[in-house]
Design goal:
Elements (H helix, E strand, L loop, with lengths): L36 E2 L13 H4 L3 H7 L4 E5 L4 E3 L7 E5 L3 E7 L5 E7 L19 E6 L1 E7 H10 L1 H27 L2 H15 L4 E3 L2 H8 L3 H13 L3 E4 L2 E4 L2 H7 L3 H13 L6 E2 L2
Antiparallel strand pairs: 1-12, 2-8, 3-7, 4-8, 5-6, 5-7, 9-11, 10-11
Helix pairs in contact: 3-4, 4-9, 5-8, 6-7
């Protein structure tokens, strides 16, 4: 079956970007997180343990699941599932990032969640729920481990640690989604974009983020020229560098200082709910 490509476009409110003076000048750096141990540290991208949720499972549970996990390549804009359709597979990304996208009948879209190596995509966390209320679209191409949904449901019933981890991650997605909508409603696009870039940077193995302005605009629900103005401000401030459809974070501390509190709040919630940080750090 030919893979689907996500073609919807969304538009929403505008920001006040394009000031003569850059709003990101003079920001101060936040203190770096002290990482004691990184989940999956030393694991290659070809191992299931390079996904942090799988790495956090008891070894006996992961050993049981591993023969059923299929390593697959996910292409950009590939649609993994559609809202309310039956889901055939669950995906545990290792280098790919999946956007959870809500859409109106008019075709307008908004990203309501992101999933990468910290979790999974394709389930709400309950064995009897066979669909999602949103689309799952590959935002950043890469690799993932795929598990057939029937085997996933069986594993949830057989292994309490997996059921607990999946339920906690589903709760985290709900918390994140609420925070993202608050951010989208009340914060300027400058801060929303920095939050989004920081989150993407946490989930990626490599330093650069392969993105176009159009795709960023669709995910944030703004016009593409608005993204161009804000990216230019960030680049002039020395926080990021954009080249040939790729964005590289040059000064992460100052970028986080320029962000609203939403990013830090979401990271705090991840530690509280999952036990590991947005960058995979756990207590030794």
């Amino acid at each position: 079956m030919p893979q689907q490509r996500y073609m919807r476009k969304g538009r929403s409110s505008e920001c006040d970007a394009g000031h003569d003076s850059c709003p990101f000048q003079g920001v101060t750096a936040h203190r770096r997180e002290r990482s004691l141990r990184i989940l999956g540290d030393g694991a290659s991208e070809s191992e299931p343990s390079s996904n942090w949720l799988l790495a956090a499972l008891p070894p006996t549970v992961l050993t049981h699941m591993t023969p059923h996990l299929e390593r697959v390549r996910l292409d950009g804009r590939q649609v993994l599932f559609r809202a309310h359709d039956r889901i055939g597979n669950i995906y545990f990304p290792t280098t790919a990032i999946v956007s959870l996208v809500a859409a109106l009948d008019s075709g307008e879209t908004l990203e309501v969640g992101l999933t990468g190596r910290e979790g999974f995509a394709g389930a709400m966390g309950l064995p009897d729920l066979g669909s999602m209320p949103c689309d799952g679209v590959v935002q950043i191409p890469g690799e993932a481990y795929r598990l057939e949904s029937g085997l996933f449901k069986q594993a949830l019933r057989n292994f309490e640690p997996l059921s607990s981890a999946v339920g906690r991650y589903a709760h985290l997605l709900f918390v994140r989604s609420m925070q993202m909508q608050l951010c989208n409603m009340f914060h300027p696009v400058e801060q929303r974009l920095t939050r989004w870039l920081l989150t993407m940077g946490d989930l990626l193995v490599r330093a650069d983020i392969p993105l176009t302005h159009e795709r960023v605009a669709t995910m944030l629900g703004v016009w593409r020229p608005t993204v161009t103005l804000v990216v230019g401000s960030l680049q002039r401030a020395g926080l990021i560098e954009e080249r040939r459809g790729r964005i590289t974070i040059r000064d992460r501390d100052r970028l986080q200082a320029a962000c609203c509190d939403c990013y830090a709040l979401m990271c705090e919630q991840q530690v509280k709910v999952l036990g590991y940080s947005c960058r995979g750090a756990v207590a030794a």
